[in-house]
């Protein structure tokens, strides 16, 4: 059975009991058909990935217990956007989309970094 990954909004640590909200419970127990004793992977974006075991399961709430860390938190690599010079209106559009994707460095700064 494939491991399910579930985002948890809160701290993760060994033997920590994690309450599930209604949406998470519906997904795990109604859609994915998990039951007490099953394991899954949980993460919070800061503490890495943890294996957790289902301790309580029903369609409206549930409890997980963190068992062990399975991997460290990994930061995504830098995102670079390079484009050829185009007309001013199109350049503004490209820059707008780059910012929406998380671009933080300007092309001039990038050029200075690699000289």
Provide a concise account of the structure shown.
The protein is an alpha+beta fold and 115 residues long. The chain is built from three helices and five strands, in the order ββαβββαα.
Features:
single chain; 115 residues; alpha+beta; 2 domains; five-stranded mixed sheet
Strand order of the largest sheet: 1-3-4-5-2
Shape: elongated
Contiguous low-pLDDT stretches (5 residues minimum) are none
Helix % is 25-40%
Evaluate the radius of gyration.
21 Å
- Structural class computed from helices and strand pairing: alpha+beta
The secondary-structure element order is EEHEEEHH
The top level CATH class name of the largest domain: Mainly Beta
User: How big a fraction of the residues is strand?
Assistant: 25-35%
Give the CATH topology of the largest domain.
Ribosomal Protein L25, Chain P
By CATH, the architecture of the largest domain is named Beta Barrel
Number of spatially distinct domains: 2
CATH superfamily of the largest domain: Hypothetical PUA domain-like, domain 1
Account of the 3D structure:
With 115 residues, the protein is α+β, with helices and mostly antiparallel strands. It folds into 2 domains: 5-71, Ribosomal Protein L25, Chain P (Beta Barrel), CATH 2.40.240.20; 76-115, no CATH class. It is 26% helix and 27% strand. The protein has 3 helices and 5 strands; from the N terminus they run ββαβββαα. It has helices at residues 22-31, 88-100, 107-113; strands spanning 5-7, 17-20, 39-43, 49-57, 62-71. It has a 5-stranded mixed beta sheet with strand order 1-3-4-5-2. The mean pLDDT is 84.
């Amino acid at each position: 059975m494939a491991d399910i990954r579930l985002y948890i909004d809160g701290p993760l640590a060994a033997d920590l009991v994690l309450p599930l909200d209604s949406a998470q419970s519906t997904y795990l127990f109604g859609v994915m058909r998990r039951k007490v004793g099953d394991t899954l992977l949980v993460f919070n974006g800061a503490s890495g990935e943890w294996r957790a075991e289902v301790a309580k399961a029903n369609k409206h709430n549930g409890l997980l217990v963190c068992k062990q860390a399975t991997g460290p938190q990994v930061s995504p690599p830098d995102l670079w956007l390079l484009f050829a010079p185009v007309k001013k209106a199109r350049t503004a559009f490209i820059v707008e989309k780059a910012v929406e994707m998380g671009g933080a460095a300007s092309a001039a700064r990038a050029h200075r970094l690699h000289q």
